[in-house]
Design a protein that fits this description.
The complex is a heterodimer of chains A (538) and B (306). Chain A has 16 helices and no strands. Chain A is mainly α. Chain A has a single domain, classed as Cytochrome c oxidase-like, subunit I domain (Cytochrome C Oxidase, Chain A, Up-down Bundle), CATH 1.20.210.10. In chain B, a hairpin with a 2-residue loop joins β2 and β3. Classes of the chains: A mainly alpha (538), B alpha+beta (306).
Chain lengths: 538, 306
């Protein structure tokens, strides 16, 4: 099969439609759409990152130096929305678009035109959302959670933001339908469900989560809209409404949402560690079951975001126990990754460095998550910088590092060129050091009593804030190396990548040449022993 | 490895351990201190219990971390290709191991859930409170109303508590006043942690807080109490706390509430019971004088002019 595919290698550029509009605007090819998702996510990563730089600059020392408090709140709100919906989620969908068809032997995504629409909604959604910065009254400034009544005090930007969220939701739902349809219908003969790569499994489960939760978010924000413009009182206590109703609905979406951002990253790590340990993934089936259990539990823990609102004791106990339970399948995943490395033959190329740091640093986020799960302790940590540290360990050194792992791992496959290992190592070491300087001291700040989302603080918090800001500036600047490496790989790298880029890589994507032809697997590949990573999985 | 280096590493580790154990000494229950690493133990038995739970779960995490990271780091050094490690590709699953590393965490979690549940139930029981104070979050200040003390209703003692004036001057972007120059009478750097009227409470008294909000959601958080509670419009959040020692305990609004969220601190002044009794009596008589004065004014205004 590889020889067959190799004959297509030189011709593949001819398969791609000519001209910008035809190739990209009308794109139906999963590889092109995947690329657009990844580029979009990278741009948004820098947009959201610039906002974080301004936030860290303002927090560099006590007193107001750069921005007004209201604008600071606009920045924290948009930073959250842009990073979650603009950077992390589209990047993961981009990885899914590129990899799922290649990994299951499918010719493309099942619904290519819908795929096009899923992507092209996003730039418009974000133009709409970011344009609110220039509206009279500024952007929404109630935090990314948009709690009423505060968010209802925003100007007309609220309507723009809500419409943008609707567009993102439609995009996510369509993307998820596409992923599920592709995985369930387009697997090559022989790629059984329990022989699929873990990355594909993680996305199958994530897609179901997304379909379940995005309509819930849409409902919550639509009620905000009618409360503001049409005189309803869903969340207005004075009109018989209930402020807490919004929090319940929002977090019913919001908690599964955090697993939407981390499960596909788990999938990436489960691909990369076996490759560089040169040993099959340890405990394939428990790993699949662990993802499914986490997804199930994610629906019954939402109120742990609301431990301080004054729920009945019974409810607090239930949500505490359910939350603590999540530590069990998450632990199973970490133990299995370590066991995969055990008695392996490990090398440390850039993707592996990022994967190992993911395991270590994501686990720190898991530990603080367990601490936050204990209600009486949460009463002290809640809404403090401890929480900020917790979710940045999970989302930056977790989700974002997982995405970077995947990009370094598959970039040679996508482009046909090797990235610069030297630049990759610089990017890794500077990132991993600075990200800890950035976020670890925030645990101390929270424990000392610093609330989140404040532009100014008591002088006792000055020292650790300065340390954190310095880490932030270095981390932000270091990400330019990531872009430099990608540009180098795509446009300047000389070294050709072989079909099996990594010595220990197993799976269908490595049977195709690098880069794969524009249309791969026009006929389903014939699965021979040794081609799948998990053919006799237990 | 040469022996002196090992000893040096051991000594460094011992120092680090000593530093970790002495963590509580770095925290002051009344206000944050520079370079503070850990939570305050707080001002009462309740907050001490919270602190104990916090430390228990912290050390459990450290323990798990030592085992997991230990195994990981060992694997990273031992099973390197550059050291000639050969992969054992048959090692792909182990049912007993999976059961073991599912069961042990469950047992650890039960061990943590038990004290946490007990403390939670205790913490949510406001029965037997001797002082009841209503706390209202307002953009961007707090209002305190004394409802009852020792079973008797308090007659109209209530006031608004705002950011103190010296902090308010220093927080202005081009005010030219340094945040470091804001210092209390007792030498505490209280920038953004000082108010016009602190909430005055007696020590050694179970205080019930009825917490609500007038406009948007606020968060009532004084770390010395051992908890925070959201102040939500249309809801009354019931919580209790105690102070075993007199002092000025400082906290802040914890829930984003708009532009001046950072500028609505909470200061609780705990005083001995006798002093509190006197203060409360003064406040009540002042309310009465105010009322008489106001009635007189209204009466004067009612007289037809010329």
């Amino acid at each position: 099969m590889s020889t067959h595919a190799a004959t297509h290698d030189d011709a593949h550029h001819d398969d791609a439609p000519k001209g910008f509009v035809h190739r990209w605007l009308f794109a139906t090819n999963h590889k092109d759409i995947g690329t657009m998702y990844l580029v979009f996510a990278l741009v948004m990563f820098f947009v959201g990152g610039s906002m974080a730089m301004v936030i860290r600059a303002e927090l560099f020392e006590p007193g107001l130096q750069l921005v007004q408090p209201y604008f600071f709140n606009e920045l924290t709100t948009l930073h959250g929305l842009v990073m979650i919906f603009g950077a992390i989620m589209p990047a993961l969908v981009g990885l899914a678009n590129w990899q799922i068809p290649l990994m299951i032997g499918a010719p493309d995504m099942a619904l290519p035109r819908m795929n096009n629409l899923s992507f092209w909604l996003l730039p418009f959604a974000f133009l709409l959302m970011l344009s609110t910065l220039f509206l009279p009254g500024g952007a929404v400034a109630g935090g990314w959670v948009m709690y009423p009544p505060l968010v209802l005090q925003s100007g007309e930007s609220l309507a723009f933001t809500i419409f943008a969220i609707h567009l993102m939701g439609i995009s996510s739902i369509m993307g998820s339908i596409n992923i599920i349809a592709t995985i369930l219908n387009l697997r090559a003969p022989g790629v059984d469900l329990l022989k699929m790569p873990l990355f594909v499994w993680s996305w199958l489960i994530t897609a179901f989560l997304l379909i379940a939760i995005m309509p819930v978010l849409a409902g919550a924000v639509t009620m905000l809209l009618t409360d503001k413009y049409f005189g309803t009182n869903f969340f207005n206590a004075a009109g018989g409404g209930d402020v807490l109703l919004y929090e319940h609905i929002f977090w019913f979406f919001g908690h599964p949402e955090v697993y939407v951002m981390i499960l596909p990253a788990f999938g990436v790590i489960s691909e990369v560690i076996p490759t560089f340990a040169r040993k099959p993934l340890f405990g394939y089936k428990p790993m699949v079951y662990a993802i499914a259990s986490i997804a199930f539990l994610s629906f019954i823990v939402w109120a742990h975001h609301m431990f301080t609102v004054g729920l009945p004791v019974g409810a607090q106990l239930f949500f505490m126990y359910a939350t603590m339970l999540i530590a069990v399948p998450t632990g199973v995943k970490v133990f299995n990754w370590v066991a995969t490395m055990w008695k392996g033959s490990i090398t440390f190329e850039t993707p592996m460095l990022f994967a190992v740091s993911f395991v270590i640093l994501f686990t720190i986020g898991g530990f603080s998550g367990l601490m936050l799960g204990l209600v009486p302790a949460d009463y002290q940590y809640h809404n403090s910088y401890f929480v900020v540290a917790h979710f940045h360990y999970v989302l930056v050194t977790g989700a974002a590092f997982g995405i970077m792992t995947g990009v370094y791992y598959w970039l040679p496959k996508w482009t046909g060129h090797m990235y610069s290992e030297k630049l990759g190592k610089w990017h890794f070491w500077l990132s991993v050091i600075s990200v800890n300087v950035l976020f670890f001291p925030q645990h101390f700040l929270g424990l000392a009593g610093m609330p989140r989302r404040i532009p100014d603080y008591n002088v006792a918090f000055a020292d650790w804030n300065m340390v954190s800001s310095i880490g932030g500036f270095v981390f932000g600047a270091t990400q330019l190396l990531f872009v430099a490496n990608i540009i180098y790989t795509v446009y300047f790298a000389k070294a050709r990548a072989p079909a099996r880029v990594w010595e220990g890589a197993r799976g269908l994507e490595w049977e195709l040449p690098s880069p794969p032809p524009h249309h791969s697997y026009s006929t389903p590949p014939e699965i021979r022993p040794g081609m799948l990573a998990h053919e006799d999985a237990h | 490895m040469p022996r002196p280096r090992t000893t040096r590493i051991l000594r460094a580790l011992a120092l680090l351990a000593a530093a970790l154990i002495s963590l509580p000494a770095w925290a002051n229950p009344e206000h944050p201190v520079p370079w503070q690493l850990n939570l305050t133990r707080g001002a009462s038995g309740l907050s001490h219990d919270v602190w104990d739970l916090h430390m228990a779960v912290f050390w459990v995490c450290v323990g798990i971390g030592v085992v997991v990271y230990g195994a990981l780091v060992f694997a990273l050094f031992k099973f390197r290709k550059s050291k000639g490690a050969q992969p054992d590709t048959r090692l792909t699953h182990h049912t007993v191991l999976e059961v073991v590393w599912t069961t042990i965490p469950v047992l650890i979690l039960i061990g943590l859930a038990y004290p946490a549940s007990r403390l939670l139930v205790y913490e949510n029981d406001t029965n037997g409170s001797q002082l009841t104070v209503k706390v209202t979050g307002i953009q961007w200040m707090w209002r305190y109303d004394y409802i009852s003390y020792l079973g008797r209703p308090v007659d109209k003692v209530g006031f608004v508590s705002k950011l103190a004036e010296d902090s308010n001057v220093a927080r202005q972007e081009d005010g030219g006043v340094s945040p470091w120059s804001v210092v209390s009478k007792h030498g505490v750097h209280d920038y953004l942690l000082d108010v016009t009227h602190p909430l005055v409470v007696p020590t050694h008294t179970k205080i019930q807080f009825l917490i609500t909000a007038a406009d948007v959601i606020h968060g009532f958080w004084v770390p010395a109490l051992g908890w925070q509670a959201d102040a939500i419009p249309g809801q009354i959040h019931d919580a209790w706390g105690k102070f075993d020692k007199p002092g000025t305990y400082r906290g802040q609004c914890a829930q984003l509430c708009g532009q001046d969220h950072a500028y609505m601190p909470i200061v609780i002044k705990a005083v001995p019971r006798a002093e509190f009794q006197q203060w409360l009596a003064d406040q009540q008589s002042r309310t009465r004088i105010d009322r008489i004065a106001r009635t007189a004014q209204v009466g004067a205004a009612a007289v037809p002019q010329g």
